Amino acid sequence: MALIVQKYGGTSVGSVERIKNVAQRIARFRAQGHQVVAVVSAMSGETNRLIALAKEIQPQPDPRELDVLVSTGEQVTIALLSMALMEMGLKARSYTGAQVRILTDNAFTKARILSIDEDKIRADLDSGYVVVVAGFQGVDEHGNITTLGRGGSDTTGVALAAALKADECQIYTDVDGVYTTDPRIVPEARKLTTITFEEMLELASLGSKVLQIRSVEFAGKYKVKLRVLSSFEEEGEGTLITFEEDTMEKPIISGIAFNRDEAKLTVLGVPDRPGIAAHILGPIADANIDVDMIVQNVGHDGTTDFSFTVHRNEFTKALDVLQTVKAEIGAREIIGDNRIAKVSLVGVGMRNHAGIAGKMFKTLADENINIQMISTSEIKISVVVEDKYMELAVRALHQAFELDKAN
Amino acid sequence: MALIVQKYGGTSVGSVERIKNVAQRIARFRAQGHQVVAVVSAMSGETNRLIALAKEIQPQPDPRELDVLVSTGEQVTIALLSMALMEMGLKARSYTGAQVRILTDNAFTKARILSIDEDKIRADLDSGYVVVVAGFQGVDEHGNITTLGRGGSDTTGVALAAALKADECQIYTDVDGVYTTDPRIVPEARKLTTITFEEMLELASLGSKVLQIRSVEFAGKYKVKLRVLSSFEEEGEGTLITFEEDTMEKPIISGIAFNRDEAKLTVLGVPDRPGIAAHILGPIADANIDVDMIVQNVGHDGTTDFSFTVHRNEFTKALDVLQTVKAEIGAREIIGDNRIAKVSLVGVGMRNHAGIAGKMFKTLADENINIQMISTSEIKISVVVEDKYMELAVRALHQAFELDKAN
């Protein structure tokens, strides 16, 4: 008998029929003798409907009231799922975030969980109940309703699993696991049976939408065994997200992430002296523009070139900021390019394997793809290339590193 | 400066536009220097939508989960109304029933209010906030969400007004006050500027849908000044519901209530001995059939006739029950009639005025309307007549008692 926390996203509970399917899945786990806590999102479309209603009244909705409003979405789902479970003859009981109680800070619309009072849930489980908890929401110390921000239901699931010391936290979604890369671009992409937390973090931050990054961090911190599965398939083991220590044989490369969301800016002829990076990026940060990759080459002739990437939507804004900065620091020229793509190899194995970067660069060179920027971390190598080469780069790397073959 | 509790029903907050109108009305009261607590229902149609969703999943929805579900309706409204108030530059803050906290018993779907913790509301009012409270809902001592049953938002409004010792509780609805009778039947029907609680109780229980009866009882018990107004008119004083002592000159008759909802059953030739009424009505109560009027004539020849009325929907069921009873008590015959109407004169003044009943009966006789049953209370006289005469009876009585003229 295991204690399992299962999280079902908005698509998985998007209709009465799907809610009944979720109830059936939970019933199968109960029949096997497991204890189940189900964490659910709002029915798909509901959160957007509520936000649209709010904006009709207040174009910039008050954050406290917005949380009161949108938290009703999950509250509807917990009641309906509990009813579906009872209709199948199971004992079930629902809890809102406030009822659990999931205590958060008071940062409305993007609150962080501080603690979870798991006593009621544990007592219910011991009495044979399936416990159904509203994801995405909590309550601050003054009793105000808070929400964790988009994707926060994943975080609720992981946090509950940590508090209850659950044997596994299962995240049900509309994909059946984590792939080596997007199967729409590389048909040979292979589903991974396991992936490490660190790799998952890199993949999540690089735009793989399977799991919300905060929930992965949370799972890593509290050593929660996390599994990604499809709610639309009866069978399947999904992808288990493991701690590195668990993995005897580490694959060198686990996956390839990519996106076209960024734009590149370069300040040419920057005087090469201490503090210059801060001088350039300070005004960018002041303008609330997030920076991703940052590259500075060694200088020559007392000047250097400084490049960084921002989200494509903020390209023009960033260019404007740099024009002001240019005069202040006496740089020669500002150039920018918003037709770039970022492609990244991710894998814990590359720590101990030399030559991965070299093989990556050679593979791209063989396809005549010019590399514009390079950035590396312990378990990731990212390159910026012209955006039209993105799919070609991903396919070539997938084949070169034999990701279609089980490791 | 007064403290006013305003209750807005589902129709009054049925759309974004109407919610904005409510905000404007509240703003006018604030501009006059009043403190305002707004109690709101779910947007019209929302509660029924949620119940339908529940029944798709569980034909007899679990009461606890049903309350979790339907309580989201008012939660949506409080957030939207607070936003609308802020958008007009007012300070506003919303509270669910649990947040207030409105403590109830644990009779899910029909809970009763036990106490209200008004401290937070009072502090907010003193800081210049409009406080927006979800009607219809509360929380039991274990933190379970409860609802007060249909129409419960009126009760929330009155209970809050009592707890806060408000100067007035205003019930906004789609009619502009309480009338001497239904204007659709008697065009000369006149809006009353005042009516006593006792009269209102009789009118409410007789089918006037203006106020929920429990809220009127509550207001009477805690001496809350209650006023019924239209949310669709900018002006108008509505109808003030007063304590009898407040009224210097009591009108003899305040209004005429009527309905076609009942059916009449008569047990003929009942042995005239103690306990016989209980013997007849016991099985009726056991079958969960509510009884309204009960009439027993004096006996002769050792037998008597026993009549009572039930809701028309339960006529057949009641007839079946009586067939069994008939044999047990040795009655002669059971007869029934579901084509009846009840017409009632209501007025605190009739206590001290002889001759009201006589005038009523003569008025009906002049119209050739036969009276089938009569029942009286201190402030009410009800008669049962053939249902086709109902409108005629109401019009004749309205004219005879000169209800179209201000008293």
Automatic annotation (TrEMBL), chains A, B:
<dbReference type="InterPro" id="IPR045865">
    <property type="entry name" value="ACT-like_dom_sf"/>
</dbReference>
<dbReference type="Pfam" id="PF01842">
    <property type="entry name" value="ACT"/>
</dbReference>
<dbReference type="InterPro" id="IPR041740">
    <property type="entry name" value="AKii-LysC-BS"/>
</dbReference>
<feature type="domain" description="ACT">
    <location>
        <begin position="265"/>
        <end position="348"/>
    </location>
</feature>
<comment type="pathway">
    <text>Amino-acid biosynthesis; L-methionine biosynthesis via de novo pathway; L-homoserine from L-aspartate: step 1/3.</text>
</comment>
<dbReference type="GO" id="GO:0004072">
    <property type="term" value="F:aspartate kinase activity"/>
</dbReference>
<dbReference type="InterPro" id="IPR018042">
    <property type="entry name" value="Aspartate_kinase_CS"/>
</dbReference>
<keyword id="KW-0067">ATP-binding</keyword>
<comment type="pathway">
    <text>Amino-acid biosynthesis; L-lysine biosynthesis via DAP pathway; (S)-tetrahydrodipicolinate from L-aspartate: step 1/4.</text>
</comment>
<comment type="similarity">
    <text>Belongs to the aspartokinase family.</text>
</comment>
<protein>
    <recommendedName>
        <fullName>Aspartokinase</fullName>
        <ecNumber>2.7.2.4</ecNumber>
    </recommendedName>
</protein>
<dbReference type="InterPro" id="IPR036393">
    <property type="entry name" value="AceGlu_kinase-like_sf"/>
</dbReference>
<keyword id="KW-0547">Nucleotide-binding</keyword>
<dbReference type="InterPro" id="IPR005260">
    <property type="entry name" value="Asp_kin_monofn"/>
</dbReference>
<dbReference type="Pfam" id="PF00696">
    <property type="entry name" value="AA_kinase"/>
</dbReference>
<dbReference type="InterPro" id="IPR001341">
    <property type="entry name" value="Asp_kinase"/>
</dbReference>
<keyword id="KW-0028">Amino-acid biosynthesis</keyword>
<keyword id="KW-0418">Kinase</keyword>
<keyword id="KW-0457">Lysine biosynthesis</keyword>
<dbReference type="InterPro" id="IPR001048">
    <property type="entry name" value="Asp/Glu/Uridylate_kinase"/>
</dbReference>
<dbReference type="Pfam" id="PF22468">
    <property type="entry name" value="ACT_9"/>
</dbReference>
<dbReference type="InterPro" id="IPR054352">
    <property type="entry name" value="ACT_Aspartokinase"/>
</dbReference>
<dbReference type="InterPro" id="IPR002912">
    <property type="entry name" value="ACT_dom"/>
</dbReference>
<keyword id="KW-0808">Transferase</keyword>
